[in-house]
Sequence to fold (621 residues):
Amino acid sequence: MAEVVEIKQENLVYAKPKLITDNVMHYCPGCSHGTIHKLVAEVIDEMGLADKTIAVSPVGCSVFAYNYIDVDWIQAAHGRACAVATAAKRLHPNSMVFTYQGDGDMSAIGTGETIHAAARGENIVAIYINNAIYGMTGGQMAPTTLLGMKTATTPYGRDPRLNGYPYKIAEMMAHLDGVTYITRQSVFNPAHVRQCKKAIRKAFENAMAGNGFSLVEVVSTCNSGWKLSPVAANKWLEENMLPFYQLGDIKDLTKK
Amino acid sequence: MAEKEVKLMKGNEVIAHAAIRYGCDGYFGYPITPQSEVMETLMEEKPWETTGMVVLQAESEVSSINMVYGGASTGKRVMTSSSSPGVSLMSEGLSYLAGAELPCVVVNCQRGGPGLGTIQPSQGDYFQACKGGAHGDFHLIVLAPNSVQEMHDFVGLAFDLAFKYRNPAMILADGAIGQMMEKVVLAPQRPRKTDEEIAEECKDWASCGKGNRQDRHIITSLELKSEVMEQINLRLQAKYKAMEENEVRYEAIDCEDADYVIVAFGSSARICSATVEMARAEGIKVGLLRPITLYPFPTKAIADLAKRGVKGFLSAELNAGQMVQDVRLAVNGAAPVEHYGRQGGMMFSPDEVLAALKDKLINKK
Fold:
């Protein structure tokens, strides 16, 4: 039996978000998904949107996001989340509709659905988890895999002559008129966790205000896929991912 | 009683009007010949200003069927339409819709294939529509209209059946039915369901926001535990069995005393009804069995005709012989079953079918 430790009220600085369920998460220890799920759950709760949120989960590690956040969910086919969300939002214009997608889902198989939902200016939010690898299928190359990075399908490192170049869908989408807020965040340290939460909140507010499409990219870790400990993965992210995937707002027309 | 509203319209235009009148909440489509008039008519009618219906042109059929998936997930009455190559792109979505048990209506105004094929009428998608047409064990409810009036009526019927069974329903038309103009009696405007009515009607499953519900709803076709997934499959099969028991629809013309029966659906059946008249004028007792539901197939009706002593069946289709397999299964060796068809967008004439009937069955030594 584990020892029950009672936390005194004055020492309580953080509690499990109200909308996070009691289901045991399937994510690997150290994975960014858990942190980002909590931020999304907190924002939905703080904005009072729990009863009118329709969330769309992808194919990939976060396919099971519906087990963890206590709102209504639709699980979409691989890459189709933004098309699914488009209809849900158009048919329920007062609801908060967001997708939660990985890099394969959004930037490989779902590029078309993502770009066109953004171009149409759908009033939805896409939370985009970029960890530069396919986690669920066992660590294959993603569209965002860095040059030289070893994966199950780039065992000698990503070579642009063989495997092409990584690309930044956030920058690509920035010139679409239907998109009003694009930001790239991360959750590798507490300061960035707080910043990321603010960005998610801003995106959700943007969608509820009917201002158009919002994208929150979160540069994330996949310590299992990267074959690094959680701490080493955070360090690797900072040293290798962030120089290429630079953090900050890419487009912000929310104040207009 | 209010006066009937009768119009002269194209089959495709009627799909659009019927969608509005039967209280459809959303249409999501992508242009493709020979069915583009469906979305064109909807855009011209602007139903978002009257009934509040959403109409959206997607960037592909892949996207439009997934918009249908999204809309259906929230309990709304949503539909799309396309033609053969476009429906192939929808296959993935149809499998997900069937797997997640979502009601919706898909119109396939068939054209000749394979590949890009032709834009002329065909019935080459019978297998695709009736045998699943995508991965996994599933069935669509498949309705085959043979007139502009049925194009209209089946939109309402398809929505009713789709919601009764929480299953995608397909209207399997073809370029001929879609493009031809006929008189049609339009249904009175049925009001769209309110969000409250939908929340009540779909209170056990729709993901439309939790509202006052305690438990969240999850629309998914995923289940990693094999023993649970098998139970889901068994439940789906039980549903298909119930459809087979309760929803078979067909039309039998002059079958009571027929020595020979032509089995044909959609535009082919329309042509073959003239064949029956020609044969009867010659003193040959020919009947027409027209399946209205292609899935569930009128197996028993055909088996009963075979038992009664029909000497031969001719499955007349605009393809190389697809439905004929189901006719053979129904007849089960009790009488010869032959196929006659044209392909590539060519249609047969009533006398061609009569000649084939004589050649393949009546005069066969």
